[in-house]
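Operator note (shift B, R.M.): manual run for Reticulon-like protein requested after the automated queue skipped it. Running by hand, logging everything below so the morning shift can see what happened. Input copied straight from the record, untouched. If output looks odd, do not overwrite the archive copy; leave it for review.
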Amino acid sequence: MATTMHGHSAPRLFGRERTLHAALGGRRAADIILWRDKKESAAILAAATAAWGLFEVAEFHFLTLVCYAAMIGMLVFFIWTNASSFFNLPVPRIPETLLSERATRQAIQDGHRRLSRLVETLYYIACGKDIKMFILVRRQSSHSVCYQKLQKICF
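Run finished. Output pasted below as returned.
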């Protein structure tokens, strides 16, 4: 099963000329996938398992997680800022971000344009002007659990 190449033997995948490490790119990603860098591979596996546990098992939502992270970050910054005077530590520095008025205005106008187009499309679908899409949406929503529950409550 092992063939010699350049004076040393290494296992080959399905009798190929290249090793599995070389087939995966032969760099850091291959080391992680093949568990040659055990600490980093374990950290990635632990992070993926934690994410799966939060989102699938505990039914956490991503936005909730982002908000909690932002609140914890603000709390740490608040405590650090107030405690720095007691312990003679330097005050944490926040990098200043400068946005030009033109870039901000363009971003707002682009978002407004997209939102207006979305509302207009939803209006045409709801009014029945795009009858094909209206029927597709109506048929999809009639099969959903939420729609059936709303029908029981309202009608």
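Quick read of the result: Residues 6-59 form one domain. Strands lie at 2-5, 8-11.
Leaving this for review. - R.M.
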